[in-house]
Amino acid sequence: MAQSEEARRAMRIACPADEGAFLRDYAATARLRALPKAQLHMHGDAILRPRRICDALAAFNASPEPRLARARAELGAEAAAGSVRAQHLLPLLDRPTLAMPGPLWTPDGRVATCTLRQFDDACPIAGATGWNDDGELWHGMGGSRDMALVVSIAGASARSAEAWAEASEDAVREGIRWVEYAVGGPADDAAGAVRIRAEAWTEWRDGLLALRQHALDAVPEVGIALVVCPSTPSGAYAAAFAAHLRAEPDGRLREAVRGVGQVGASDPAERVEAYAIFRAAGLVAVNVHAGEWTVARPALVAQSRASVRSAVEVAGARRIGHGIIAAGDAELCALLRERNVCLEVCLLSNRALDNCPLGLAHHPLPALLAAGVPCCLATDNAYKLAAPNAMGLVREYQCAAELLGLDARSLAALAAASFEHSLAPAHVKARALADIGAWLNREERAAAGLAAVE
Ligand SMILES: [Zn+2]
């Protein structure tokens, strides 16, 4: 049977190890791709198509030296200086050519887990590097550091106009109309930085605005907002950021940067002053990573639940990155429900990072929905989770439907929440909500064997 044009296009953008399985899975998602969605939790450095990684590895491995030896020496120096993270990453480079670590990837950079079952079976990733520099195992990390190291040495970067435009193209294919990217702050690589030099601000601003504009020009139907997630927690840094923002000569940056959040596992309470300043500057607290664990990690439950409470009560978060630890805690669920704080639930990320040890079918999302907690679905890190394209959001909906048993009404509610809790303009939200209603009508009429009523 001849492949449809759509299937051939999907093949060109993807790089699956098992093309037949990928195409079958892709074809099966047509109705989920038709559901309008917003992507609210996506790290801007993780939007690489597998094809880009595959091509970069092939080009690198055509003549790996002296670059591979140089990378080995640099990481070796860090390891010798005592970096536990570097000590665990170093064996990845102890081979004649560069290879992606398994099991989500094949060594040559193709997606090894084309289907949800394959992904579920491959996780959690045994032996994946999740060590921080204090020598603590930070909940597995799903091997994301291993993958990021290989991808960066191979020279594939998400920080390119092409990668951002491709991500918007993939968004359209997935029915996504609005994307919010978490990005780092200006000059915040130095821990505790208290000032932002003018040149650093300008470089940060111009770089991000150019990437965003390129994507908007390429695919105008996908709106893009940015969420700044500084690694620096200090109030002084936030004050410097706010001063630069106030001094901007026009509204372009304000239109682009609408949110503030944080990545990593620190308690939002450590940033009480910074959040107050960012919020006063007009930024909305979203992508506030907290409560990424589940009760499967009993030693961390109390701390994890406390961080969700901090995100709401201290950071003033309107959305929380993950927050799935709230499941089973009636008080915390009530707090999220009453304050209308939405959890950005990333099913496959939770599985890869071993927060869902019994498998995706046991994810706490249904329990959170039953408790009335606002939730949306998001991807977290597309390439680090071996998504079939730069977005990977349909796969989350497919997982919710096929492995968690959610019906069309629940999926439509998740999609509606993704717009209601987004930073999108009102007209984008209103149109999407109407179209989601029409989608649900079609689904329910089809299920009842009736023609759709528009
Ligand atoms: Zn995240």
UniProtKB/TrEMBL annotation:
Its cofactor is Zn(2+). Pfam families: A_deaminase. Keywords: Hydrolase, Metal-binding, Zinc. Residues 270-436 form the Adenosine deaminase domain. It comes from the Eukaryota. InterPro entries: A_deaminase_dom (IPR001365), Ado/ade_deaminase (IPR006330), Metal_Hydrolase (IPR032466). One of its GO terms (cellular component) is cytosol. GO terms for molecular function: adenosine deaminase activity; metal ion binding. The keyword Signal does not apply. The keyword Hydrolase applies. GO terms for biological process: adenosine catabolic process; hypoxanthine salvage; inosine biosynthetic process. Its EC number is 3.5.4.4. PANTHER family: ADENOSINE DEAMINASE. Belongs to the metallo-dependent hydrolases superfamily. Adenosine and AMP deaminases family. This is adenosine deaminase. The lineage of its organism: Eukaryota, Haptista, Haptophyta, Pavlovophyceae, Pavlovales.
